[in-house]
Amino acid sequence: MIPNTGIMGAYILFDDLENKQNEISSLLTYYDKQINTNGLGADINPITWWILKKHGIKIYGTDLTFNYDLEIASLLEYVISNLNSYWVNWINRLEKKLSFDNLSEQDINVEQLDKAVEWCTLGMLRQLYTLKEHDITSKIGSGNYGITELPEKWNRLIHEAIAIKRLQTNRYYKSQIQRLTDLLAFLRFIHLEANHVYNNSIDSLNYRRTLTQ
Predict the structure, then answer these.
(1) What was the pLDDT predicted at 167?
(2) Considering the entire predicted model, what is its pTM?
(3) Which H or E run contains 79?
(4) Quick check: is 126 in a domain?
(5) Total domains, the chain
């Protein structure tokens, strides 16, 4: 076990793949530093199956071929739902913090803001990447994608998030209030852009289905 590192996962049998679209409640899992036999913390979702089939890493044993289909519509629906619930909650919390009367630099916990910058910036960029590119990337990969594909004004915040993720000491902000302000503006931008991309993607997928019927 790696000290001070949170690890979670599920032990999936090959036969379980046939039921991947259904909720599997009897999985053996490791969650919250405990082994569970009731599926607690399994978090099995469309991203799980996508990564397993397209980006799975063999540790030992023979090569496997996964014959189940990947449904891009299900993946996109899961991602946009997560963005419009979990990540919107983050936006609301940051808005509440920034709206405090007479907010000063001393009112902001630097370590907590570090975590928020890394978690939210790269996390929401991963959502946008999946919605636009119909694939899944790492947090660092999503940061590099954002630097390449998004307006240059967001580069400083993204570089900051990548540096925090890599445990580097270099920082791109002197003012914590400015950093919080930029983070909130960025998350609002990603939220709007992601929903726009999703709506266009679904329209395109529906159009293709119509042509093949």
Answers:
(1) 96
(2) 0.86
(3) helix 72-82
(4) yes
(5) 1
